[in-house]
Amino acid sequence: KQEVTQIPAALSVPEGENLVLNCSFTDSAIYNLQWFRQDPGKGLTSLLLIQSSQREQTSGRLNASLDKSSGRSTLYIAASQPGDSATYLCAVREYSGGGADGLTFGKGTHLIIQP
Amino acid sequence: GAGVSQSPRYKVAKRGQDVALRCDPISGHVSLFWYQQALGQGPEFLTYFQNEAQLDKSGLPSDRFFAERPEGSVSTLKIQRTQQEDSAVYLCASSIGDRLYGGYTFGSGTRLTVV
User: Fold this and answer.
1) pLDDT tens for each residue of A80-100
2) Is the peptide bond before B70 cis (omega within 30 degrees of 0)?
């Protein structure tokens, strides 16, 4: 069974710092990997989607990399801002062949950017 | 609509009561997923629809949980005889394509509290 682990579980840094969030998964036979942001009491907002054939995706100050063979992804946030404070979730999508395959999520990294 | 809409946003139910949670996906989206997110955890897969067909319900925790999408658009997740352990945020997500390729768009969720 696929397991997704996110490290660290929580992170608090002063604004302006560059930071890296880590995600690892146990089964490398994934179809894609997606990073989400979740604000308190809200649903999930998709940040970046990386297909299994890709190595990285960039959007503004965010950069996500994928090393499928080693089962790892990182989310890099440049020049962090207080508005970046949220929980960041990593999720992998598998090709199960038979039934449907939803996403398998990690527990998230709770990020606080101090003004 | 522009996004995935879920209602109600909040639901408080007495133990033993039946509840129904509604999801309006983005118009034209083929795939629809339901997830359950307990406090401090990542979302966990419940069930998946492709149009009106429920292709996987392996994540439903018990036979008290039932989901339908009769016309391939709006979906309802029903929980019978609610228990305290059912307290969670229930998230709905839709995707334009089949389960393998597209990124997901999530709704804001329904927070269910069973007292």
Assistant:
1) 999 999 999 999 988 764 444
2) no
